[in-house]
Amino acid sequence: MQIRIEAFDLPGLTCAAGPGFPGYGDIHVAVQPRARDGRLLVPHPGDAPSATWTLDCTAHRRPGGGIDLTGPWIQGGPGRRFVYLTWNGTDTTGTTTMFRRAKLMLDAVDPSVAEAAAERGLLIARLGLTDAQGHPLCAAVRPPAVTWSAAPPTFRRARPR
């Protein structure tokens, strides 16, 4: 199956300095792989009108009921799975580094939505990426900050032959 992340309301290309925070420019957001040596998936500039990522994953039925998602883009253990959106920018010394991350918490997906998504092959996350202070969204992200839905009932992902 797949997870499609549809993001909007990106914060811009800069994040101002503050107490104990150097500030960053040339901000980009991407999906972080589980592998520590892996490359970020499709970085989008912080001033893009929107950002979309499609992640391949596997849906497993849990013995007690429910769906557990695993794959190269999914972090955490059973019952604590999430997808990292990582913010990278350039500081005043010219060094590019990751300075914030947002965790899209998969345990916050309604079980009926997860079941429908597993059946149809697509789970969709929609969220804004600017927090209340106008900075890049960070920390654990759960509804209502993210809306989870399954693909429409008529959607069926083509299977490789």
Plain-language structure description:
The longest helix has 10 residues, at 111-120. The protein is mainly beta. It has one domain. It has a five-stranded mixed beta sheet with strand order 3-2-7-8-10, with no helix packed on it. It has one helix at 111-120, and strands at 2-8, 25-31, 41-45, 50-56, 58-61, 67-70, 82-90, 96-105, 122-128, 139-141, 146-150. Keywords: Monooxygenase, Oxidoreductase. One of its GO terms (molecular function) is monooxygenase activity. InterPro entries: DUF5990.
Give the helices and strands as they follow along the chain: EEEEEEEEHEEE
Lateral arrangement of strands in the main beta sheet: 3-2-7-8-10
User: Can you give the helix content as a percent range?
Assistant: under 10%
Low-confidence stretches: none
Helix- and strand-based class? mainly beta
Q: How many distinct domains? A: 1
How many helix segments?
1
What is the number of beta strands? 11
Specify the overall morphology.
elongated
Distance between the termini: 15 Å
Layout of helices and strands:
Layout: E1 2-8, E2 25-31, E3 41-45, E4 50-56, E5 58-61, E6 67-70, E7 82-90, E8 96-105, H1 111-120, E9 122-128, E10 139-141, E11 146-150
Parallel strand pairs: 1-9, 8-10
Antiparallel strand pairs: 1-4, 2-3, 2-7, 5-6, 7-8, 9-11
Structural key phrases:
single chain, 161 residues, mainly beta, four-stranded mixed sheet, elongated
